Each structure stands twice: as C-alpha cells, then as structure tokens.
Amino acid sequence: MLEAMSGLLLVLFVALLSGTVVSTALPKIVGALNGSQSQYTWVVTAALLAATATTPIWGKLADLMNKKVLVQIAIGIFVLGSVLAGFAQNMPELISARAVQGLGMGGLQSLVQVVIAAMIPPRERGRYSGYLGGVMALATVGGPLLGGVIVDSWLGWRWCFFVGVPVAAIAFVVLQKTLHLTTVKRAVKIDYLGASLIAAGVSVLLIWVTFVGNSFAWASWQTGAMVGAGVLILAGAVAVEARAAEPVVPLHVVREKTTSLAILASLAVGMAMFGGSVFLGQYFQVGRGYSPTEAGLLTIPMMVGVLFSSTITGRLITRSGKIKPYLVAGTTVLVAGFFMLSFIDHETSLTYLSAAMLLVGVGVGMSMQNLVLAVQNTVKLRDIGAASGSLTFFRSLGGTIGVSVLGAVLANRVTANLTDQFTRAGIAPSGGGKTSNLNIAELPEPIRTMVRAAYGDATGHIFLISALIAVVGVIATIVMRPRLLRSSLDLPAPQEVSPAADATGTPARVEPLTVGRDRAGGT
Fold this sequence. Notes:
Blueprint: H1 2-23, H2 26-32, H3 37-64, H4 67-86, H5 91-119, H6 122-152, H7 159-162, H8 164-178, H9 192-211, H10 221-243, H11 251-255, H12 257-277, H13 280-287, H14 292-298, H15 300-320, H16 324-341, H17 350-376, H18 384-425, H19 445-479, E1 496-501, E2 507-510
Antiparallel strand pairs: 1-2
Helix pairs in contact: 1-5, 1-6, 1-8, 3-5, 3-9, 3-18, 4-5, 4-8, 5-18, 6-14, 6-15, 6-17, 9-10, 9-18, 12-17, 12-18, 12-19, 13-14, 13-19, 15-17, 16-17, 16-19, 17-18, 18-19
Main location: membrane
Organism: Luedemannella helvata
Protein name: MDR family MFS transporter
C-alpha cells in the first residue's frame, strides 16, 4: 500500500508545489514582466479557473476509465503547462500557460483522492490522511522557500515553473511501477454536453467576478449580461445532468445531506483559505519589504499548523471513527485565525502574525482533507470519482472566487490608500507610467514607502472578509449529521438474501447491514 501511495504522494506534491513555489516569487515575476495588480491576481486565477472547470470531468472519467492512465495524462498536461509558463515572455503568455497548467492540476488533485478511495476503506483512510497532510505541509512550506531561493539566485524566476518538471517525471515512473488497480469494465458514456455547460457557466461567472468593480460597475449592463448568461448556462447544465445516463455531477450524490453540507463547507473554506493565503507572500514582500526567501520563511507557522493538525487528526479519526467534531473544531479555528489576521497592517508584530498563521494552518489541516473523507464515506464505490470530483470542484470554485474577489478588494483598497497618500504629499497620481507598483525596486524611495504602507494596511481588510466567509463553513459542519466511518471499501447492499431457507422453504430475508450509531451509542 505504501509503495503505491508513494507515487500518489509525489503527484500530490507536484500539484501543490506548482502553486506554492510561485506564491513568494509572484511579486518579482509580475514586476519583471511589468504586470498590474489585476494581472497578478489572474496568474493565480487562471490556474484555479482551469482546474475548477475540469475537476468534475476528471472525477467522472475516473469512474468510467483506467484511473492510472488518467493520472499519467494529467501529469503530462501539467508538465506541458509548466514548460510553457517557464518560457513566457509577457503577462498574457504567462496567464495562458498557467491555464494549461491548471488543467493538469485539476486532474492531479481530483484523481489522487479518487485512487486512494479506491484502495483504502474510509475508516482506515484517516490514518493515511496524515501522510497527505505531511505532503501538503512539505509542499506548502518548501514551496515558498524554494521559490524565494530560486528568485533570489542566479537561476531566475523561470525556474519556479521548470522545477516541477523533473519531480513530475519521477512521479510518472513511480506510478507506472507501483500502482496496480483493478479496472472495472463499464460502458463509457461521457456527458460531453453537461461537462461543456458546467465549464462554460462557471467560467463566465468567474470572469465576471474578476472584472466587476474594476473594469465596470456592479450595477451595469455588463454585470447583467454576464451573470444572466452564467446562470442560464448552469441552469441548462442542471437540466442536462438530471437526464444524462452518466452525469458529470450526479445530482443524487449532491443532494445527499452530508455531501451537500460538505460541499457548502468546502466552498467557504476554499474561498477563505485560497483567497487569504495567496496574498500573504505579497504582504510580506510588498507591504513589509522582505525578500522572497524571507517571505517563505515567515509563512512556516501556517504550514507547521497544517502538518501537525492533519497528522494528529487523521490518527484520532481512524481510532474513533468519528469525523464531525474535528470538522467543527477545524472550521472554528480557521475563523479565529483569519479574524486575528484582519487586524494586521504594515507594522504588525511578527509574533502576532505567526500566532494567527498557526491558527489558520491548524484549521485548514483539520477541515480540508476531512471534508473529502466525510463525502466519500456516504457514497458507493462506483460514484467515488464523481463525488470526490464534485467536492474538489466546489472547493476550487470557492478558491477561484476568493482569489478574484479578494484580489479586486485589495486592488481597490490599495488604489484608495495610494490616492490618499499622494494627495496629502502633494504628488499627482499617475496611471500612465511604465513601472508597475509591484516592481518595488524600480520605484523612487518616497513612492516606494507609500506603496509598502498602502499594501500593508489594505491586506487586513481581505482577511476580515475571509473570516466572515469561513463562518459559513462552521455553520455547515455543525448542521452535518454525525456518522461513523465505514470499514468497507463500498457501501453495503441495501438488501441481501440468504441462501438458507426457513421451514416453509422460503429463503430467509437478511436485514441490510448498516454502519452507524444505535440508540445505545454503539456501532
């Protein structure tokens, strides 16, 4: 089992590293390519958008096709996007390459969950989630540090994208040698129309979220057109999914109470976590003046929280079979961490920042992976891919919305802060210069100080929004029905007939086997 897990953990490491290795390097990358704050956000959003739109498709394909081959295809797409991003000459090229990279990332993040679920029962899966948490922490700790070192060294920022290529190649070879899954022969009926409508509807709404309030007003014809089109397309997708033989997002799975609440919690956690943490590297570098390497070191408390909380929580869940208490506790701690971060400015104590980031890391480690486990525990093995893909889809959707919305809020707040500081200093604001505000090294000293203060003071506002969003996750996990994790790979059949016959010769009926709590509190 651990041999097969090694390749999957490498795959997950590659997918996570692609985002974290860029986080601390992004201010310098965007500055070197003379990009804007909006383009800074789009470097992250493009990858998340592509991953979000394709995640349920990858998940459904995993229910219909060879899972091992799908993982290897996703690795190939990811490598192609990484190489293209490394050779980008301007911001549009970089953003486009990140979208290709996102296609592979969506497959890797979804398929790893599916393959693990096909090998390990939910009750035992809690133990292995500690390994997943360790890889997550290693990628999120090592990524920013590696990105900072690369940017500060002679290698240059392009190696932030090239560095994942050899790791992906090793993961491909390891999976080929160690991963052996039984492929269940099923008629492949891919719902192309439903997949296309879901991807199109989500993309339209996310593009609107990115540009509203900046390129056009909230109350404008552009808003009406884009929101109306997005809603109509998604309504059409729901109608198609209700009639499809093999829907990309099975509505009967999404309607199940535990699944729907876990999706709501994942949406909130994704919005808060992705949206908030993406801008931490920018805060430390632009708002506080630290180097990329120093910014990576300063985020270690958050990653330590992820590592220890996911490992310890996974073992406790395996021992008790209970998952709801840890979900409620994790989302609550996440809210507390973001609430603490909402008070930061460009002069906040690093001790205070470390404590707040530690809480955020603990909250993420206790909740994110275990929400997937809660959903996988409620569905049949044949629907594991679609269910896991749907949850990952909504989590990525939340992350994409969070990055877009919080990025827009941050940009507007920074603009207002800079305008106010320029006015008080008697400097005429100019938007026509060739130097980006993110290219700090090229700015004159007085302007540089004002830009640092503007970014540092504005960042606290986006963490307050993150805290409010994460409250929805707390409510969803509290309402969630408590269930014990099953010890079998698949749900038991609803009814079984024993070959033994009673005195009349009629086969005796055997009551369905259920795993849960009885009135006495047993199992």
